[in-house]
Specification:
Order of helices and strands: HEEHEHEEHEHEHHHEEEEHEHEEE
Oligomer: single chain
Low-confidence stretches: none
Radius of gyration: 21 Å
Shape: globular
Number of helices: 10
Largest sheet: 7 strands, mixed
Structural class: alpha+beta
Mean pLDDT: 94
Strand order of the largest sheet: 8-9-10-11-13-14-15
Helix content: 25-40%
Strand content: 25-35%
Length: 314
């Protein structure tokens, strides 16, 4: 008799009575937010939902056998549920939302960010500024929920997606991405609240925009710094951790430049591992907060340890 069967037999002998409660199953997930402090900044990770990521049709520069092996090593199988995470930064004087989720563009799976923001104790009307890593649907599709915010992203990103000629030259499957980007930006332009930044670098105290091109031409990461602590919000550097950490050369068909995407990923993975830099990731399992380490020549994701203590008071 194996060990599990022995445990089951002991349990049956020790608990002869049926359960007393016939409580219905809840069948909904808990509110999707997680809070942490970064110096004087309060960071709230927000889930917009998860969606079935079509690895077999989206991943490139890796063989089907390589994908199957990586997923098996992580005890996963296709289709893998991909998280869509955004991050709310309360600096004490400003409320900044980094990325906004997909809104209604991905269907019923997603668009949960506003509800999770409310569950976390904030209202969409309170968001002062939105920083976009890039204008793909699952990052900018939800901007319309924040009526008072200023919308910011790199000028290079804006120029690419808002130039009609680029749509004509892009692969056909990206046509709807151009349409969605233009629709997202239009109301902010009309209201005078669209303010791209010309140069990467410091945007305000404790917030620096970093160039990380490849997935899109103007893709940005955002480095947060407060009281000597740092957090890198890196957007779409990694889509599927189980594949792209052991094989950083694996790309996705949505990358505008596979070579640049690989270079950005290689550089940030090495920096994160060497500096023990905390990462906030858009598509690693919620809350997407962790560190990168290199072990036996392979990058690994180490989730941040859960901290249930109340935030320190100023």
């Amino acid at each position: 008799m194996n060990f599990i069967k022995k445990l089951l037999l002991v349990g049956m002998l020790a608990a002869p009575f049926a359960g007393q409660a016939a409580a219905p199953q809840v069948r909904v997930q808990a509110p999707g937010y997680y809070r942490m402090m970064l110096g004087d900044f309060e960071i709230t990770a927000l889930s917009d939902g998860t969606h079935a990521f079509p690895i077999d049709t989206v991943m490139t520069n890796i063989t089907p056998a390589g994908i199957a092996s990586d997923l098996a090593d992580a005890d996963l199988r296709a289709p893998v549920q991909g998280s869509i995470n955004a991050f709310l930064v309360n600096t004490g004087s400003k409320l900044i939302l980094i990325d906004t989720g997909a809104g209604a563009l991905y269907g019923d799976c997603c668009g949960k960010l506003p509800a999770n923001l409310r569950a976390a104790g904030y209202q969409p009307e309170q968001v002062d500024e939105i920083l976009i890593t890039h204008l793909h649907k699952d990052h900018a599709g939800g901007v319309g929920a924040f009526p008072n915010a200023v919308l910011r992203l790199s000028q290079a990103e804006a120029d690419y997606w808002l130039t009609p000629a680029n749509k004509d030259q892009a692969p056909a499957f990206l046509a709807s991405f151009f349409d969605a980007a233009q629709a997202a930006v239009a109301p902010f332009r009309a209201a005078g609240r669209f303010k791209p930044y010309q140069d990467f670098g410091p945007l305000e105290t404790g917030v620096t925009a970093l160039a990380a091109p490849g997935h899109t031409p103007g893709h940005a990461g955002y480095l947060l710094q407060s009281r000597g602590q740092q957090l890198l919000i890196w957007g779409d550097i990694v889509h599927v951790a189980a594949i792209q950490l052991p094989h950083p050369g694996a790309t996705v068909k949505y990358d505008s430049s596979e070579a640049n995407a690989c270079a950005s990923r290689a550089g940030l993975l090495q920096t994160a591992a060497d500096q023990h830099l905390p990462i906030a990731a858009a598509h690693i399992a919620f809350p997407g907060l962790g560190r990168i380490r290199r072990h036996d020549g392979v990058y690994e994701w180490l989730p941040l340890n859960y901290d249930g203590a109340p935030a320190p008071q100023p």
